[in-house]
Amino acid sequence: MADNNTSSPPPPPPATMNELDHRSLPAWCLSFGAAMVPFCAFCYGHSRGFTTKVVERVVKSPVGVYGLFALPFFTLGMEKSIYDTVQSWQGLDPNVVPADRGGFPSGGASLPSFSLIPVRKIARRLTQAVEQEREQQQQE
Predict the structure, then answer these.
(1) CA 25 vs CA 9, 31, 70, 126: distances in Å
(2) Are the beta carbons of 39 and 95 closer than 8 angstroms?
(3) Against a cut of 0.70, is the pTM above it?
(4) Most exposed among 6, 16, 79, 101, judged by the fewest C-beta atoms under 10 Å?
(5) 81-122 confidence digits (pLDDT tens)
(6) pLDDT classification of 30: cutoffs 50, 70, 90
(7) Cis peptide before 72 (omega within 30 of 0)
(8) Burial classification of residue 115, based on how many CB atoms lie within 10 Å of its CB (0-12 exposed, 13-18 middle, 19 or more buried)
(9) CA 96 from chain center: how many Å?
(10) Of 51, 26, 56, which Cα lies nearest the Cα of 41?
(11) Lowest mean pLDDT among 9-18, 20-29, 33-42
């Protein structure tokens, strides 16, 4: 039997970050806010003694002191989940790495995506009008 695979190969990764990311300033503020809300909640909880309660509860749990080794992985996983979810909501695939990026500290794309939603295909419409306006101004 002949292989009738008509699917095209995946497109090459973007060469620069500018080819990948076309967000406007309000969209950047949304990303910043989505990252800062959990951080501010952590700071507030820390000021109220929540961190001490978590550490005490982990130490008194059946896993004991060794459970403290899991806390950094758990919190980094939560952070990556928030970041990947916001990027997917804005239409950016968190697993795409432009050719001019990668490595430390921006190596999160080499990990699996922890996004809670699929990459949104219509997010470009949010910034499309702004981009078209900029292109028209540049042409004039």
Answers:
(1) 33, 10, 37, 11
(2) no
(3) no
(4) 6
(5) 888 888 888 777 888 777 666 655 566 777 788 888 888 775
(6) confident
(7) no
(8) buried
(9) 11
(10) 51
(11) 9-18
Vertex 21, ends 38 and 115: CA angle to 5°?
40
Mark 46-56 as b/e (b = at least 16 C-beta within 10 Å). eeeeeeeeeee
Q: What is the DSSP string of 97-129?
A: --TT--STTS-GGGSPP--SSPPPSSTHHHHHH
CB atoms within 10 A of CB 12: 7
Give me 30's structure tokens: 């949304």
Tokens, residue 24: 């406007």
112 cis-preceded (ω within 30 degrees of 0): no
Helix (H) or strand (E) holding 30: helix 25-47
Q: Is the pLDDT of residue 49 over 60?
A: yes
How much is the pLDDT for 113? 84
Residue 23: what residue type? Answer: R
Give the E-state strand segments of the chain in sequence order.
none
C-alpha closest to that of 35 among 71, 86, 76, 77: 86
